[in-house]
Amino acid sequence: MMPRELLLEALFWSAIFWVAVAILYQVAAFCALFFFLRRKTAPLKRTRPRCTFLRPLKGMNAAKAANLDALCRCGVPVVTGIQDRWDPALGMALQAKARHVKVPISIRVGVGPSAPTGRSPT
Fold it and tell me: Whole-model pTM?
């Protein structure tokens, strides 16, 4: 055989070898993916919620009640702030708390802490 024919034959068998390696790699990757996706994992237990809704309330109307109900349906804790204990929004917040017993709703009544600058928040 001529050196050119030997070179071509070596290239041919080298290409066959690397194609076989690539096919075996793909088969191994699909098998690994199959077993990875098939495994059963225990659901993660969350100790804390992802977020908390802060909702200042003053006065009462249907839109505020609907908004508070929509926040409660999200399933995350809701903190409501009401400045005056005689505000009708307190009753609305208590009704929402009674309707959504599985949602932790905290009702804060009274003036909150002052702003870092010493001014009261507006």
Answer: 0.53
For the CA atoms of 7, 8, 11, 16, the dihedral, rounded to the nearest 10 degrees, stands at -140
- Integer Cα distance of 67 and 72 in angstroms: 9
Mapping DSSP to helix (H, G, I), strand (E, B) and coil, where does residue 65 land? helix
**What are 75-89's pLDDT values in tens digits?**
888 998 888 888 888
Ordered alpha helix ranges (H), 39-79: 62-73
Six-digit token string for 3: 């050196």
Angle between helical axes of 62-73 and 88-99 (0-180°, round to 10): 30
CB–CB of 52/76 below 8 Å?
yes
Residues in Cβ contact with 107 at an 8 Å cutoff, skipping those fewer than 6 apart: 80, 82, 90, 93, 94, 97
The pLDDT assigned to 57 comes to 87
Quick check: 92 and 68 in contact, CB under 8 A? yes
The domain spans of the chain are: 1-41, 53-109
